[in-house]
Amino acid sequence: MYKVEETKKGIRVYGVKDFNPKHVFECGQCFRWNLNPMGHYCGVAGENYAEIKYSDGVLEIIGSTKEEFYTFWLDYFDLERDYSKIKGELSLKDEYMRRAIEFGKGIRILRQEPFETLVSFIISANNNIPRIKKCIENLCRNYGEKIKDDVYAFPKPHNLANVCENELSDCIKAGYRCNYIVEASRLFVEQPFSKESFQKIDIANARRFMRQYKGVGPKVADCILLFTGSYYNAFPVDVWVRKVMTNLYNVSTHKEIDEFVQEYFGSIAGFAQQYLFYAIREGFLKVEVT
To answer: Which domain holds residue 247?
Structure first.
């Protein structure tokens, strides 16, 4: 499918389409990737640190081996999915969708580790991106395993399940969310979930399962289900998306929105959400948000 070439610094993957690092890492789905002065996105995924470059169909993963590409990055970047087909199908829906896709055409939905996604989106609730990133980095620095100089993996569930809430609060400054993190970590140790475990149930039951976790409401539940690659019809609704749906599609309540997107976008509703969210948040689609 792809030609993968090892270099002194990492690997080059040839023939990669529908990929733009800015779109992928700045569309609200992840919090551990940052742009460095050289124009590379640097970050940690699982226990892997890498720098990402992309140009003219060539994806460069600095710090990776060919083996790691096939065992981790291929799945993480969802590189076996035909995004051109998805974009083609969604573009036929309406002009708003077509324009949003043109703007964010390099988005790929990452297939992220479940526990990290759970905790990260608990932290994200009613929070801003810089503060979310700072909380998560402090969490990793204090409770995660060291990967290399000043780079740490996301903590293991049992590490956070056993932490004192006040100690956690002092370390990451996440306020009331610290209680949610500890309680969610304890429940995850007892009842872990994965993409594979969700294959046995439909999205309604998966949402009910996720709501067992303290700090997980409807939006956070759908973020977790979508950004772990578990349900691509999950459709997270925040203030930006609600305004889009109200102004462009004339549906406003959570129930109305979900019923509409499941029928209108179907099994690829989650992809539609990402294109719409990115376009409205970046100011490309002009919809008043109050």
So the answer is: 239-281
